[in-house]
Amino acid sequence: MKDFLYCIDKEFTVEFYDVDSMNVVWHGNYVKFMEAGRCALLDDLGYGYREMVEDGYAFPVVTMNVKYIRSLYFSEKAVIRSYLMEYENCLKIKYEIYNSKGELCTKADTTQMALKLDTNESCFVSPERMINRIEKKIKGE
After folding, report:
1. pTM recorded for the entire structure
2. What crossing angle do the helices spanning 128-138 and 29-45 adopt, rounded to 10°?
3. DSSP letter for each residue of 58-102
4. Which of 10, 63, 98, 105 is least surrounded by Cβ atoms within 10 Å, i.e. has the fewest?
5. Residue 106 exposed, middle or buried by CB count within 10 Å (0-12, 13-18, 19+)
């Protein structure tokens, strides 16, 4: 049995501005790759950042864990695989970044909590429209 609810891959190219003087991706830029993967995942699920704002919510990252396994290099093609793990009470997403040889380079996860924009209050249940759209997508409707 799989341990995730939904998954999507996003290809990208390591750009010059992503690397340091050693021609490898600077460790902080992996967070940017994760954001690109998260946006692709949420958009595919039908509840991206635009829908969040329309509904009056932000979803700040509250935890992030990153394990670096091997480096990515300038101009290399890569893939970030984003896995939806949880969505009803918070957004939990796992990530795997693979290099052009298909080797696992980075593993990570983030947790985001809903925040009402008008009151800055944390919510312990995700917005109803988000839950409905995600459930519709993962059920294949």
Report:
1. 0.94
2. 80
3. E--EEEEEEEE-S--BTT-EEEEEEEEEE-SSSEEEEEEEE-TTS
4. 63
5. buried
Of the candidates 105, 113, 112, the one whose C-alpha atom is nearest the C-alpha of residue 30 is: 105
Q: Which helix (H) or strand (E) holds 38?
A: helix 29-45
- How far is residue 108's CA from residue 106's CA, in Å, rounded to a whole number? 7
Grouping H, G, I as helix, E, B as strand and the rest as coil, residue 26 is coil
| Contact yes or no for 104/98 (Cβ under 8 A) | yes
What span, in angstroms and rounded, lies between the C-alpha atoms of 90 and 135? 14
pLDDT beyond 50 at 72: yes
Catalytic amino acids? 20
Nearby residues of 140 by Cβ (< 8 Å), 6 or more positions away? none
Question: What confidence tens digit (pLDDT) does each residue in 89-130 have?
Answer: 999 999 999 999 999 999 999 999 999 999 999 999 999 999
In terms of Cα–Cα distance, which of 131, 107, 124 is closest to 55? Answer: 131
Chain centroid offset of residue 48 CA: 11
